[in-house]
């Protein structure tokens, strides 16, 4: 567990909450979300209202940019296939209506997650989303929450960062804008289907002659002698990031940590810090038949705020 020293709050503003009840007549085809003409019109209307809200923010950048994040189910960290598909659809609709600002491609976000070998489940605060958006060139980000209620599905949009920082009181008032449609079996299935996972699986690591695996053929696990955890990067502290980095490493017969593979990473330079720290660990090597051997094991660094 990482010790957190001081938390620098991110100056941000939350805008109006715009609610839309998703169309129950929507259906899927080949893992893609297909909306009826009426349903698409509702989504386009939501995009138009969002465009107006963003334009009213009077962002300071000459050419402001907006990034739509994957929508989550009920609460941050709960992602689904439906949330990803709806975010894609809404982003495209928003780009068509955008005036005075640009909408960043959603592929920019997925490429970022792939490069960082991270998961959507680790992104659980508006600070984290805002920091990622800023890293990718966005002035503000759009979040979405999906909720099932009485056989219907609601999508609530949250705009983050769409007000001038010198004037924190200039925020949008929350409004309710609901349209009711039944929740179909297709939508329900997508709602509970897991979202994309960008982590690496252990079986993707190439075979290594002479390297043993702990717990197999009588091989014991290495033990830590001196294994301090990495500290937060400044940007991770600013974003109040919390998550886990999982590394697959080889602990040599001499107790050194080498051959590091990232299985699950984290944004904001946290992964690089974890790798750097692991290289300095001092370990008691694993043994086979009483003799030290090189063993591949997984190590985990968990980052928490206090």
Description of the structure:
With 306 residues, the protein is an alpha/beta fold. It has 2 domains: 178 residues, Rossmann fold; 102 residues, 2-Layer Sandwich (TolA/TonB C-terminal domain). Helices cover 25% and strands 27% of the residues. The chain is built from 7 helices and 16 strands. Strands 1, 4, 5, 6, 7 and 8 form a 6-stranded mixed sheet that branches. A hairpin with a 5-residue loop joins strand 11 and strand 12. The protein is elongated. The N terminus is likely disordered.
Q: Please report the distance between the alpha carbons of the first and last residues.
A: 10 Å
Domains, number: 2
The CATH class designation of the largest domain is: Alpha Beta
Q: Calculate Rg over CA atoms.
A: 23 Å
- Principal-axes geometry comes out as elongated
What's the main sheet like? 6 strands, mixed
In N-to-C order, the SSE pattern is: EEEHEEHEHHEEHEEHEEHEEEE
How many strands in all? Answer: 16
Question: Which ranges are low-confidence, i.e. pLDDT below 50, for 5 or more consecutive residues?
Answer: 1-31, 164-177
CATH T-level topology of the largest domain: Rossmann fold
Structural class: alpha/beta
Strand content: 25-35%
What would you give as the CATH superfamily of the largest domain? ABC-type transport auxiliary lipoprotein component
Helix content, binned percent = 25-40%
The CATH architecture of the largest domain can be given as 3-Layer(aba) Sandwich
């Amino acid at each position: 567990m990482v010790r957190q020293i001081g938390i620098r709050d991110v100056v941000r503003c939350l805008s109006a909450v715009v609610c839309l009840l998703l169309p129950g007549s929507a259906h899927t085809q080949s893992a893609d979300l297909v909306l009826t003409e009426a349903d698409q019109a509702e989504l386009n209307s939501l995009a138009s209202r969002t465009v107006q809200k963003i334009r009213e923010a009077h962002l300071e950048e000459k050419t402001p940019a907006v990034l739509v994040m994957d929508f989550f189910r009920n609460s941050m960290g709960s992602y689904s296939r439906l949330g990803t598909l709806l975010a894609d659809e809404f982003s495209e609709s928003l780009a068509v209506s955008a005036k005075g600002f640009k909408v960043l491609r959603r592929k920019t976000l997925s490429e970022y997650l792939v490069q960082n070998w991270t998961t959507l489940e680790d992104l659980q605060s508006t600070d984290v989303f805002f920091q990622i958006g800023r890293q990718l060139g966005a002035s503000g980000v759009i979040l979405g929450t999906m909720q099932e209620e009485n056989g219907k599905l609601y999508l609530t949009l949250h705009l983050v960062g769409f007000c001038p920082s010198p004037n924190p009181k200039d925020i949008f008032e929350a409004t309710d804008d609901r349209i009711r449609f039944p929740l179909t079996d297709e939508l329900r299935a997508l709602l509970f289907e897991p979202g994309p996972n960008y982590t690496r699986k252990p079986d993707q690591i190439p075979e290594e002659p002479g390297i043993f695996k702990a717990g197999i053929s009588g091989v014991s696990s290495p033990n830590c002698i001196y294994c301090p955890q990495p500290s937060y990067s400044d940007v991770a502290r600013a974003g109040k990031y919390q998550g886990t980095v999982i590394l697959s490493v080889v602990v040599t017969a001499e107790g050194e940590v080498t051959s590091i593979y990232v299985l699950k990473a984290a944004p904001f330079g946290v992964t690089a810090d974890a790798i750097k720290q692991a290289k300095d660990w001092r370990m008691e090597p694993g043994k086979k038949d009483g003799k030290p051997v090189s063993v591949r094991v997984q190590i985990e660094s968990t980052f928490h705020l206090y």
